[in-house]
């Protein structure tokens, strides 16, 4: 009995200890931005990070170590850029000139500096008690530059001491101690006037720093969400959708809280984007939408109307567009080029059949009844050419009066989007219209502007 009691007491103490450890891991008092170098996971204290960056076109500085990539103009501030991979002699793939490099802007005690890494991952929150001291086993990087290691979700993160690696020592330290910073003998770029003025300004109070730190954390989470949406769903944050994204992130942040504000899975990405898409996406337009669309179309578009409908999906939008145009312009010849890069969708579009309960009242006059259900009549079908095509490639078409591209452009890479707008400007003639998604606005540099009073995303040439 005594032995059993002793075992129970030991088990009880063990259980309490395990619970205490689990409780600590549930608490978050330390956050780090994580990234990869040569296939290993690293982290930097989030309070040391100003922002995530993508560097392009460094300015070379002569007579500097090979790990100094150059200097970079960050909104008027000139900062040094250090390649951490080269600094620690880690293998890495060299990018071609003009290619973007992933990196971080660090805010150290004495200066601001940029670092290049392989890939930015995410923000990880942990309890500081779970951080273990560095060990010589991590031979890739000198142990004195590592502040600790920690395991999180099955991944081992090496936490770098960026002050020791990149910071500057004060004069009293330099008199007695050999430099420990790898940057002590590198060239520091001259300060700009703005930097000089800011160094003479009074330091922030503790409460201001706390608020600034929270704002920076939120901004970093925002950048991570944007990058995750791009990686998972191919959604690109540009001026086209910036306003919607900012509002949606604020709502998301409020709903989920700081600790759960990141997009880490496809389910998260789909949930975040759930409010982005235009009404009646993937289905026949309702009476209200069709009526508003007809109302916003110009009173005249010419004797022949050519329409481009890229990203048409299964064809619901194309059929609705054809029917509304036929209703608005009954005596005009209409031709719609409807394209998509999904071969299965395009193959099935010409033979779409609808059930009675799927068909809104406004488009019944354009449909015929068959043994399998309702389908659009031959006149509507003949006005649409469904074709396999990727919008990223050029398309041979005559001059266009209407472009229907709801929500599509937000899923196009920015460099490709610029080319597409050039093509649109060449193709669209006269009083032609461009229909974007309800949460999209044409970029200012595109030469297009939101049609005044439009509820559906109509845009006109400036």
TrEMBL record:
<dbReference type="GO" id="GO:0005829">
    <property type="term" value="C:cytosol"/>
</dbReference>
<dbReference type="InterPro" id="IPR036061">
    <property type="entry name" value="CheW-like_dom_sf"/>
</dbReference>
<feature type="compositionally biased region" description="Polar residues">
    <location>
        <begin position="178"/>
        <end position="189"/>
    </location>
</feature>
<dbReference type="InterPro" id="IPR039315">
    <property type="entry name" value="CheW"/>
</dbReference>
<dbReference type="Pfam" id="PF01584">
    <property type="entry name" value="CheW"/>
</dbReference>
<dbReference type="InterPro" id="IPR029063">
    <property type="entry name" value="SAM-dependent_MTases_sf"/>
</dbReference>
<feature type="domain" description="CheW-like">
    <location>
        <begin position="29"/>
        <end position="171"/>
    </location>
</feature>
<dbReference type="GO" id="GO:0007165">
    <property type="term" value="P:signal transduction"/>
</dbReference>
<protein>
    <recommendedName>
        <fullName>Chemotaxis protein CheR</fullName>
    </recommendedName>
</protein>
<dbReference type="GO" id="GO:0008757">
    <property type="term" value="F:S-adenosylmethionine-dependent methyltransferase activity"/>
</dbReference>
<dbReference type="InterPro" id="IPR022642">
    <property type="entry name" value="CheR_C"/>
</dbReference>
<dbReference type="InterPro" id="IPR002545">
    <property type="entry name" value="CheW-lke_dom"/>
</dbReference>
<dbReference type="GO" id="GO:0006935">
    <property type="term" value="P:chemotaxis"/>
</dbReference>
<feature type="region of interest" description="Disordered">
    <location>
        <begin position="170"/>
        <end position="217"/>
    </location>
</feature>
<feature type="domain" description="CheR-type methyltransferase">
    <location>
        <begin position="249"/>
        <end position="462"/>
    </location>
</feature>
<dbReference type="InterPro" id="IPR000780">
    <property type="entry name" value="CheR_MeTrfase"/>
</dbReference>
<dbReference type="Pfam" id="PF01739">
    <property type="entry name" value="CheR"/>
</dbReference>
